[in-house]
Predict the 3D structure of the following.
Amino acid sequence: MSVSRPAVVILAAGEGTRMKSPMAKVLHPICGSPMLDYVLDAARHLDPARLVVVVGHQRHQVTRHLAEHAPDAQVAVQHHQGGTGHAVRTAIEAVGLDHGTVVVTYGDTPLLRGQTLVSLVREHTAQGAAATVLTAQVADPTGYGRIIRDDAGRLAEIVEEADATPEQRLMREVNSGVYAFEAGLLADSVKRVATNNARGEEYLTEVLAILRAEGHHVASVRIANCDEVRGVNDRVQLAQARQILNAGILEDWMRSGVTIVDPATTSVDRQVTIGPDAWIGPDTHLEGRTVVGAGARVGPGCLLRDTTVGRGATVIYSVCESAVVDPAARLGPFVHRDHKTTKGVNQE
């Protein structure tokens, strides 16, 4: 089944007050890249016809980052925090999204995979739905909107936690906040969202209620891995997301033929390159654009940042920043190299 290229709207306008940082929340790095970059990469799996990022709080930081790292993204400015519905309405009014499919996702969900978005759009198209919501079953639903289903198991409504009854708060199927919409219906409905809720905001979930009330089909897709819909709102959740992403990076390298002795004490940024049959020892951290050559041994106890380690070289208990370690060279223990080339063997 062919699927036309959708537009993607990424909501990245939140204040991020719980991060307690002058840096925009979506720019906080995880495994070497701002979390927003992961969301942009996931969106690009859809080969989007339009890629729109809604910015607001600390928007100048986010806009500068997009100009440098994602020039294909259009920017829409949400001048006040009026809720998710208001943010989407802002995007529609700023760039014009009136046909095809529109996918809405968030700039603080770095674990969401591109393939999941592809599956969402395919199911949305297959069902001929006006809107399709991505849901998840979670152990702790605190903070999420709850999915309410009718007796036939169909999606009946989404209730935000602040507006939920005690019984509804016990439900563990939650709204991820990620949707696929038919653009024309979305553009019409989002203008009619009311603000008679606990926060006085325009909730995007109200669009689903409007569509259902007018007889349109609203579908849902439940994701298998609930970690994908984890949002990052504070430093604790940032660390949890990093742990999950790092574990995936390490697994990919191990399956490609790299030995990682102790994954629990090893971190590897996502732009690092490691050659086949390399050996990475405990308590080793590879950052930035570090390159480790085939058969090289790095660790234990190393921090390498933007460093190239040649084929068959050995680096132990060392810190290297923007350095080059020649093939078959030996560096360490207890060495700091900065913008230097290490030649020969037994460099100490």
Notes: The longest helix spans residues 235-255.
